UniProtKB/TrEMBL annotation:
<keyword id="KW-0808">Transferase</keyword>
<dbReference type="InterPro" id="IPR029044">
    <property type="entry name" value="Nucleotide-diphossugar_trans"/>
</dbReference>
<dbReference type="InterPro" id="IPR054566">
    <property type="entry name" value="ManC/GMP-like_b-helix"/>
</dbReference>
<keyword id="KW-0548">Nucleotidyltransferase</keyword>
<dbReference type="GO" id="GO:0000271">
    <property type="term" value="P:polysaccharide biosynthetic process"/>
</dbReference>
<dbReference type="GO" id="GO:0005525">
    <property type="term" value="F:GTP binding"/>
</dbReference>
<dbReference type="InterPro" id="IPR014710">
    <property type="entry name" value="RmlC-like_jellyroll"/>
</dbReference>
<feature type="domain" description="MannoseP isomerase/GMP-like beta-helix">
    <location>
        <begin position="304"/>
        <end position="351"/>
    </location>
</feature>
<keyword id="KW-0547">Nucleotide-binding</keyword>
<dbReference type="InterPro" id="IPR049577">
    <property type="entry name" value="GMPP_N"/>
</dbReference>
<dbReference type="Pfam" id="PF22640">
    <property type="entry name" value="ManC_GMP_beta-helix"/>
</dbReference>
<dbReference type="InterPro" id="IPR006375">
    <property type="entry name" value="Man1P_GuaTrfase/Man6P_Isoase"/>
</dbReference>
<dbReference type="InterPro" id="IPR001538">
    <property type="entry name" value="Man6P_isomerase-2_C"/>
</dbReference>
<dbReference type="InterPro" id="IPR011051">
    <property type="entry name" value="RmlC_Cupin_sf"/>
</dbReference>
<keyword id="KW-0342">GTP-binding</keyword>
<dbReference type="GO" id="GO:0009298">
    <property type="term" value="P:GDP-mannose biosynthetic process"/>
</dbReference>
<dbReference type="GO" id="GO:0004475">
    <property type="term" value="F:mannose-1-phosphate guanylyltransferase (GTP) activity"/>
</dbReference>
Length: 476
């Protein structure tokens, strides 16, 4: 029997996609964090998350909460896997998980007052996806009785990087009341917790929406008041729901601190589903496919005489020789080498680079836009060379620049170029010059990707030298 037949229809998944992923630098960066990257499979983490609770299993379409800066990435990645979210909520500012989840709960309640929310971070790994859906079924009875459910993962080791939850008395189904939550312990405490039957706190929840909002009102009233006002102020923007400015006033607090650790209705469902939160390079090594010497090697990485190491390279061949227990991550613009037992300090490296004014701390060379992406190939005095890739049907804004001229050369595909009052169709190896101040637009009218080389020249080449006159993505 497919799980679609077992009563998931009143469960609305909520996917929280607000993380910046600095602990997985240099692959994950603020402009394109880890949930949008294919770290485990050919799909991104958020795509894997959405697919494991897809409408094909009987769940309602998901609500996704994300940063305004990531809205087009989320929409495109959902389109690629044929999932149409019920809503994509845009946070004007990240305020942690309690305000994000509460805003989603208010939107869900307006559509379905008796809904149950299945809350999933966008960046977790689940090895046994059928097991996760079975755990949801096990927790459903307690949720329908008004309990706020969390999923406790059975520990495979006394990990110090996770919070713990202690199950108490048994209640409906396979659930237990939560006796206590505990923050990340030291090693000796973690060993005792495992021996005493504590579970890892996964950060995944099953919440009856009405009961959850009552508990927020009781234990975190300011969270509810500010997010409710922001939903009242929300404006539809294309396929997105842009939360209002009151959201910025919400306390920055996690749902664990705001509600779960304060309510007397917390329940936990024990599960063993091959879970990891992928919060560090060592966690990616743990879930990765290892060779006979315990190495995980990805992309253009190679090893000789290495053991228990993680090597990932993109664009440049990277060889690790005779090393043990290290992480090597090589990108075209940055390289990380760190001992596996020091990976929690990677975020300190990001802070160091920011203090030094290095753009590599936050941005990749490849910058994604709703129409495709561009990538800087070379920069010099008063010039810059970029590659532009425009998706089929993609259309850039009608724009002009005050400080630079541009020359476009089509590598492959077909380009429809507007230059002031004229339109020109360009094909492979054809080019066009756009003088400083000209009003112009680039479109891809074809069915395959359009790739072109853009040569910019002028006194200032920053991305903020764009005056958008018209834009199908509402960025004017």
């Amino acid at each position: 029997m497919r799980q679609a037949e077992k009563g998931f229809a009143d469960i609305i998944p909520v996917i929280l996609s607000g993380g910046t992923g600095s602990r997985l630098w240099p692959v994950s960066r603020l402009s394109y964090p880890k949930q949008f990257l294919p770290l485990i499979s050919e799909r991104s983490l958020i795509q894997e998350t959405a697919l494991r609770i897809a409408p094909s299993y009987g769940f309602a379409p998901p609500i996704v909460v994300c940063s305004e800066d990531h809205r087009f990435i989320v929409a495109e990645q959902m389109r690629q896997i044929d999932i149409e979210p019920a809503a994509i909520l845009l946070e004007p500012q990240g305020r942690n998980t309690a305000p994000a989840l509460t805003a989603a709960a208010l939107v869900a309640q307006a559509a379905q007052p008796d809904a149950v929310l299945l809350v999933l971070p966008a960046d977790h790994f689940i090895g046994d996806e059928d097991g996760l859906r079975q755990a949801v079924l096990s927790a459903l009875e307690a949720a329908r009785e008004g309990y706020l459910g969390t999923f406790g993962m059975k520990p495979t080791e006394p990990a110090t990087g996770y919070g713990y939850v202690k199950p108490g008395a048994a209640i409906a189904g396979h659930c237990h009341r939560v006796e206590r939550f505990v923050e990340k312990p030291d090693r000796a405490t973690a060993e005792r917790f495992v021996a005493e039957g504590y579970l890892w706190n996964s950060g995944m929840f099953l919440l009856p929406v009405a009961a959850y909002l009552r508990e927020v009102e009781q234990h975190a009233p300011e969270v509810l008041a500010t997010t409710r006002q922001s939903v009242t102020e929300a404006k539809q923007d294309l396929t997105f729901l842009r939360l209002g400015p009151s959201f910025r006033q919400a306390p920055s607090i996690s749902v664990d601190y705001a509600v779960m650790e304060r309510t007397d209705k917390a329940a936990v469902t024990p599960a063993s589903v091959g879970w990891a939160d992928l919060g560090s390079w060592s966690s990616l090594w743990e879930v990765g496919d290892k060779d006979a010497d315990g190495n995980v090697v990805q992309g253009d990485g190679f090893v000789i005489g290495a053991t228990n190491s993680f090597v990932r390279a993109s664009g440049i061949p990277t060889v690790a020789i005779g090393v043990d227990n290290i992480v090597v991550v090589a990108m075209e613009d940055a390289v990380l080498v760190v001992a596996k037992d020091h990976v929690q300090q990677v975020k300190d490296a990001v802070t160091l680079l920011k203090q030094d004014g290095r753009s590599e701390a936050d941005t990749h060379r490849r910058i994604y836009r709703p129409w495709g992406y561009y990538q800087t190939l070379h920069m010099g005095e008063r010039f810059q060379v970029k590659r532009l890739t425009v998706n089929p049907g993609g259309k850039l804004s009608l724009q002009k620049h005050f400080h630079r001229a541009e020359h476009w050369v089509v590598v492959n595909g077909t380009a429809l170029v507007t230059r002031d009052s004229e339109q020109t169709l360009l094909r492979e190896n054809e080019s066009i010059y756009l003088p400083l101040g000209s009003v112009h637009r680039l479109e891809n009218p074809g069915r395959v990707e359009l790739n072109l080389i853009e040569v910019q020249s002028g006194s200032y080449l920053g991305e903020d030298d764009i005056v958008r006159i018209e834009d199908v993505f509402g960025r004017v």
